[in-house]
Amino acid sequence: MPKILVFGKNGQLARCLAASAHEFPDAQLVFVGREECDLEDASQIEPVIDRLQPDIVVNAAAYTAVDLAEQHEDIAFKVNGDAVRAMAEALAKRAIPLIHVSTDYVFDGKGTKPYREEDKVSPLGVYGNSKLAGEVAVREAHQKHLILRTSWVYSQFGKNFVKTMFNLMAQRDEVRIVDDQTGCPTSAHDLAHAILELCGAATSAEFDKFGTYHLTSDQEMTWFEFGKSIHKIALQEWGEDWKGKDCVVLPIKSSEFPTAAKRPEYSVLSCRLINDTFGIKLPNVEDSLTAVIRGRGKENADA
User: Residues in domain RmlD-like substrate binding (predicted)?
Assistant: First the structure.
């Protein structure tokens, strides 16, 4: 039975890993949150690994506040860079594999076709640069790694675009959403299931497929199009008495919604490599989004 140590406990990916654990009865998951290990202090990481003696580690923890990172660069780099290096170095000494979750924000979004793993990286802001620092650290420190770049992660847990839309649609007559940024919405539930599959593979003695992979849904859309899908499916699932049923979803340009951090305009990731290597293909957005909306429940849509 592989023992999986997950750094992160309260974030949406960690909570989805916990929710998916029953599908992998041969695995033992142990979650470490900030109260047990503060990733702003990298010296706390190695003792936790020694105490828990895992067979594999999943780093589901990160500083993900994209706009706040512009003001708190030191914290973003401590959590997304320094802590990841300490994790990778400690695991390398013990020959324990690491699955590290990264982001589409390592690219500048100036491309016009899905980014492949080997394409040039060029982050636009502090968040993307701090996540790239984590990737570099893992590659330099530890051969037995899987870096999984994903994008636009959502679930019924934590803070994410889908939950924000539920709240706004219930409170307003209209919501305006940017229609000039394109990516692939990815369910944290689907991501968690794939990660647990990879944990089983990566702990086998003969495993030799370490490296960097992209793992998202394969449906590209703008934030506006995603917002329209959220409204459509919520209305289908929750019916005419849902508070947000009459909300109108309107497109706007990014210039009309300025943010502290610049977002990539096009951050679609090609998942061909992980499909070909492991046979992993995530469900389509409509099915995954429907599952999340059902799991959220109409009674909790505004919470």
Answer: 3-293
Residue 292 contacts residue 155 (beta carbons within 8 Å)? yes
Q: SS3 of 292, please? A: helix
Query: Which candidate, 100, 105, 104, 97, places its Cα nearest to that of 134?
Result: 100
The domain 3-160+184-220+267-283 belongs to what CATH superfamily?
Answer: NAD(P)-binding Rossmann-like Domain (3.40.50.720)
Q: How many Cβ atoms from other residues are within 10 Å of residue 225's Cβ?
A: 18
Q: What torsion, rounded to 10 degrees, do the Cα atoms 277, 195, 54, 77 define? A: 100
The token pair that represents 109 in the structure block: 């979004």
What's this model's pTM, rounded to 2 decimal places? 0.94
| pLDDT tens sequence across 76-119 | 999 999 999 999 999 999 999 999 999 999 999 999 999 999 99
* 108 vs 159: CA distance, rounded Å: 24
**One-letter identity of residue 225:** E
Sign, Cα dihedral of 278, 279, 284, 287 = negative
Instruction: Tell me which residues are annotated as active site.
Output: 127
Q: Which two tokens stand for residue 111?
A: 């491309």
Tokens of 238: 């929750």
